[in-house]
Write the structure tokens for this entry.
Amino acid sequence: MDRLPVGSFHRRIMWLIGIGMFFDGFDIYIAATVLGATIRSGFATLPQAALFVSATFVGMMLGSVVTGFLGDRFGRRFTYQVNLAIFGLASLAAAFAPSMGVLILLRFVMGFGLGAENVVGYSTLTEFIPPAARGHQLGLMAVIVVTGLPVSALLGYILVPHFGWRIMFVLGGVGALFVWQARKSLPESPRWLQTVGRHAEADALLRSIEMQAADGKPLPMPMSDAAAPLQPFAALFSPPLLGRLVLGCIALIVINTLIYGFITWLPTFMVKQGLGVAQTFGYAVLMAIGAPVGSVIGAFGADRWGRKPSIITASCFAILFGAIYPFVRDPALLPVFGFALTVPIYVLVAMLFAIYIPELFPTEIRLRASGLCNMFGRGATIITPFMVVSLFKADGVKGVLAMMIGLLVLLIAAVLLLGVETRQRRLEAIS
């Protein structure tokens, strides 16, 4: 796998995984448009909005850890189809919710599927891409995923004022079920097949991949490394993997809080400050463009500058613009500085979710390790909505961003103390 040139096969895998994860991102980010509209229409209160977001994270927390165990036991491909069906059907049902209570319950079910998708998608692509291009390709998939933010913001701006918030759930559900059908052609990971002893299947699949990747040209000779012993699940709780597990948990706690404690709540903050729904969504669209821009920077920077330098530099820029943003008073400058703050946050999204965390662990326990990191990340943000509401009521956006800055400082310290550089290294060598 590591000697193959990146070509049409790898691009097909990236798109098969990426389109599903696009709708994963779309479904997550519709909270930003849905909550503002439900509050303004009287369908929901601010405390109910906080419960809606927390229910999403409870579902995602459980989905992350359950999928980690299922994916390492039954395979990557199996878990894709299950989680797509779960969040696709639940999203369609949410469009017909008769009350906010029912919508919150359905959001919990959607969250279970969404949490599963995030764990499996990035980890599986990690196992297909050669080391020289792994950061670049995984970063580009993060671009596909976070494009769900500006797309959901733009569609909310266009559709919600005319058709109401329910249309957003219809779009997400229909898209997920369409991808469920398309993903039936997704192959299993040869690395996973090898770790569970299905050597004949792994060999046959790898020969097929080699034929597609070669495209009639000679391939480099295979690398002849000694086989590393398989790591049991218990190895996660002793050095050196324990330090990586702690780093992964801290990193995902921080980035989840940045996204769902600030980005997702921006339209709601603006509505509570007296801006109209149309104006709020217009600002949100402009700021949301920073999501794919930041992910593109992360994609190209990961292999050029390295994982650790990119994470630390992006964190420093996020701290800088986070300190400036609360003091911006001119409405015309709000989206400008909001964009400048969004870009480094989404550099971190690409680096942490897509690239760095899946690389840190051996194939045989990769999904369980990523699932545990995601469980802590999602679990910590269960309380984030209530902290955000409390901080916003007490100190406005300034209080919310003070919490964000403190978490970024913690992330920098964790990367410096516990991080290992993985740029252009084979997965087996990193493990």
